[in-house]
Amino acid sequence: MQVLMVASECAPFAKTGGLADVVGALPAALASLGVEAQVLMPAYPSLFPLLPQGEEVARFDDLPGGTGRLMRVTSDGVPLLLLDAPQLFDRPGGLYVDENGRDWPDNDLRFGALSQAAARVCTGVIDGYQPDILHAHDWQAALAPVYLKMDGRSEPRSVFTIHNIAFQGRFGPQALGPLGLKRDWFHPEALEYHGDLSFLKGGLMFADRITTVSPTYAREILTPEFGMGLDGVLRARNAVLSGLLNGIDLNSWNPATDDKIARPYDARNLKRKAENRAAICDRMALEPNARGPLFCVISRLTQQKGLDALLSAVPHLVARGAQLAVLGAGEPDLEAGFRQAAQDHTGSVGAFIGYDEPLSHLLQAGSDAILIPSRFEPCGLTQLYGLRYGTLPVVARTGGLADTVIDANVAALAVKAATGFVFDNVSAEGLAQVINRVVDAHADPRLWQNMQRAAMRHPVGWDDSAKGYADLYAALVA
């Protein structure tokens, strides 16, 4: 079976978050099940070195925003189709924003071109290649199923995956013309959303199947609290909605072979984590002889992630004898707040504002627990990395966090099944309560080690979810 995946990012080539990790890892997991997946993505400057190695397989003269060509190349084991359109993608700054953090004003054209190129691939513009399934990811690829239906095509069948419904790709109605969309589809039962064009709504309305990245999130987005204004659309299409958990790349994230950490280890020699903790203390100016647990945060620093509540709980965490190492960037007030916390609690709190991939591995390897107090979380990957590394996740009960962590309650501890700590109240008070639970559990070495080993046994790879996708594709083709 041939699957064309369409996404705006794919690890390790271009990444802003978990979407890239999923799109980068899923094709390899599907290959073992007889599904051949190619990833269509923009040729950003970081991918320019790959272009001379590739083969031009299609050329377009009239995409939104101008011309483009498709280059086929395989790199890091991922089969890629790169949309080379320099006028759209050859620019400084981020994938979606300029150097000042503002959205590119032509993001509608940039990702409309990506979606339209995908739809044209599905019509057979590449000699010898005809996908059986179009699989579009998030708002940036959401118009691909729309363009297919606009051409009157029922094949290939399409799947649209929501990675985070908070990001919807909304543009004014004036975008319809340049995007080549049907104006008579600009109404509430199709593309219109409160007077705007919504890319995401287009994917929800016109894809044959809708998935999201955890079973709990699939239920949550049917409600006004989590549906971000699209809960009614999703309730209307609930029959074709399902939740499949994300997995992680078990080769890239393996504490026994990780070359980014100070000392590799596995579940049989957990004492080696201490050498990684020492390396964290050295890197982040933390007291090396502290006895309490070391918490880490590896996250975008936003209120959605609950980090305003954590900032308020820092004095309590320090008072309980624990330490905190923060890696991330985001809202300026939170960045400033964690910098100030590191100054106010020298030796107990360290903050690295920015992103550093090797440091993220070291934090997973050397910390005792990872804090993820998100107010909503479609799936989350850092808790899966934590499980893999025996760094116990401390998570809010929402989305994929609730689906992947077994709380250290009495029943779970009795059968040695607990893998972390789950709490409900995302506030300074709620965090203080769960921090108390973690500190008390950490004081019992045997209990803590049992939890670490249970966490490291927990399946976090792609096997189950890849089979879920393969079965979904097969059902659609049938």
TrEMBL record:
Catalytic activity: [(1->4)-alpha-D-glucosyl](n) + ADP-alpha-D-glucose = [(1->4)-alpha-D-glucosyl](n+1) + ADP + H(+)
Molecular functions (GO terms): alpha-1,4-glucan glucosyltransferase (ADP-glucose donor) activity
E.C. designation(s): 2.4.1.21
Domain named Glycosyl transferase family: residues: 288-442
Highest taxon of source: Bacteria
Keyword Transferase on entry: yes
Keyword presence, Heme: no
Residues given in the record as ADP-alpha-D-glucose binding sites: 15
Keywords, sorted A to Z: Glycogen biosynthesis, Glycosyltransferase, Transferase
InterPro entries linked: Glyco_trans_1, GS/SS, Starch_synth_cat_dom
Pfam families to which the protein is assigned, alphabetical: Glyco_transf_5, Glycos_transf_1
Pathway terms, separated by semicolons: Glycan biosynthesis; glycogen biosynthesis
Residues of the Starch synthase catalytic domain: 2-235
Record HAMAP family: Glycogen_synth
Physiological role: Synthesizes alpha-1,4-glucan chains using ADP-glucose.
UniProt family annotation: Belongs to the glycosyltransferase 1 family. Bacterial/plant glycogen synthase subfamily.
NCBIfam families documented for this protein: glgA, PRK00654.1-2
Protein name: Glycogen synthase
Organism: Ruegeria spongiae
Name of the coding gene: glgA
